[in-house]
Design a protein that fits this description.
- This protein has one domain (3-167).
- Helices cover 57% and strands 7% of the residues.
- It has helices spanning 3-7, 27-42, 45-51, 56-74, 77-93, 97-100, 102-113, 118-128, 134-138, and strands at residues 154-159, 162-167.
- It is globular, with a radius of gyration of 15 Å.
- Helix 2 packs across helix 5, helix 4 runs antiparallel to helix 5 and helix 7 (102-113) packs across helix 8 (118-128).
- It starts with a helix and ends with a strand.
- The protein contains nine helices and two strands; from the N terminus they run αααααααααββ.
- Strand 1 (154-159) and strand 2 form a beta hairpin.
């Protein structure tokens, strides 16, 4: 097993129990962010997908949700971009895109909240990696009310450490 293949083991769902309830920014958040940003610069989308462990969509979807909140909390575009990469991969490997689609609204809103152009952020991921799902590529072109966090079951809020997108479902 190569170094790259071993590093993807942090995305195995069995190793990620209780990840969704960990405090923001956890060690795992940083590990996943760094891995995704690293491989995005070195590998094609197809290569990355081939190295993904089974059921990775759940872990990456959770990470993308958390990354959107971290991006806003720290006004950090790197966190946003890592979340977009995670969402792009999750959408491509999930059995049901509807489970991963809501997080795109969080990432879109997070881009707005940190002062970045969300359409540009999405298009940069599409330029970097070819072969992304239609749902990811077309999300910025949705009518405004269909890409709000409220339409996807979220609201803006806080936890004890600061800003966080909160589920309403």
């Amino acid at each position: 097993m190569s170094f790259r293949e071993r590093s993807f083991t942090i995305l195995e769902s069995v190793k990620s129990s209780n990840y969704s309830v960990e405090e923001l920014s956890s060690v795992r958040d940083g590990q996943i962010r760094d891995l995704l940003l690293d491989v995005a610069g070195e590998m094609s989308f197809e290569q990355v997908k081939q190295l993904m462990p089974r059921d990775v969509d759940r872990v990456l979807g959770t990470f993308a949700e958390r990354a959107a909140s971290i991006a806003v909390r720290h006004q950090d575009a790197r966190e946003l971009r890592a979340g977009l990469l995670a969402a792009a991969i999750a959408l491509s490997v999930t059995g049901d895109f509807r489970e991963e689609l809501p997080v795109l609204a969080l990432l879109y809103r997070a881009a707005e909240m940190i002062g970045n152009d969300p359409d540009l952020e999405f298009s940069e991921i599409c330029e970097k990696w070819s072969g992304l799902t239609r749902e990811f590529v077309d999300f910025p072109r949705r009518i405004p009310e269909d890409k709000t966090i409220q339409a996807m079951g979220y609201k803006e809020g806080d936890d004890k450490s600061g800003f966080r997108f909160l589920r309403t479902w």
